[in-house]
Amino acid sequence: MTAADQADKLHLPSMPLAGHLAELRNRLIWSILAVTVGGSIGFYLGEQLITLLRTPLPPDVTLQQIEIGDGFSIRLQIAFVVGVILAMPVLLWHVWRFIAPGLTTSERRAVLPWIPAALAFFALGIGIAWVILPYAALFLLSFVPEGVNRSINIKSYFDFVTSLFLAFGILMEFPILLVGLSRVRIVTSDRLRRSRRMVILVIAIFSAIATPGGDLVSPFVLGLTLYVLFEGTTIFIRRTGR
Hints:
The protein has eleven helices and two strands, in the order αααβαααβααααα. It has helices at residues 3-10, 17-44, 46-54, 70-99, 105-111, 114-141, 154-171, 174-183, 189-194, 196-210, 217-239; strands at residues 62-64, 151-153. It has a two-stranded parallel sheet with strand order 1-2. The longest helix is centred in the middle third of the chain and has 30 residues, at 70-99. It is flat.
C-alpha cells in the first residue's frame, strides 16, 4: 500500500454499526424495487417467454400442468428471473456504492471499471445457458425408455430452466471477484497458480451443485467455462503486475 493509500485509509469516514445496517437496508430496498419493476415486465411478457423457452424441446415432447397453481407459479418464476436480469445494472451499482466508502481512492479507481464488466459477464452466462439448454434437455430426454410418452411436468421443466439461467449468470461473476480481490491486494497471480488444483476441485463441486436437472452437459460446460475464465483471469492479473 502506498503512502497516499495509507493516508487515505486514515481519513476514511468511520460509520457506526447502526449506520452500516441502515445503509445496507436502503441499498436492499432499492435493489428489491428494481427487481420488482423488472419482474413486472417479465410477468407481463410471461406468455411470450413461456413460448420462447419451450422452443429448445423436441417437437414430440409435450408439457403438462399437474397442479392447479403451477401456471401461476411459473409466471412468478419467470418474472423473478427476468427481474434479476433487467435489474442487474442497478444491483451492481448498489453493491458498488455500499463497498466503495471502505476503499481508498486508488482502490476505487482500480475496481470501478470492472462494474460494467460484471454486467457483461452476467449477460455472457445467460447467453451460454440459452445455448446449452437444448443439449441438456436432449441429454436428459435420451434416457426416456422406449414406448414411454415423453411428457414433462411443466413446473419441473421451468424449475430447470430458471435455475440454469440464474446459476450461469451468477457464477460468471467469478472472474470479476478474482480481479477485485487482486486490486485490493487480497490475492495474487502466484497464489492463484499455486491454488490451481483446489480451484479446479471447487469449480467441479460448484458446477455440479449449481446446475439443475442432473444432466452431464450443464455442469461440464459451466465447469469448463469457469476454468477457462480462471486461467484467463490469472494471466490478466499477472500482466497487471499483481
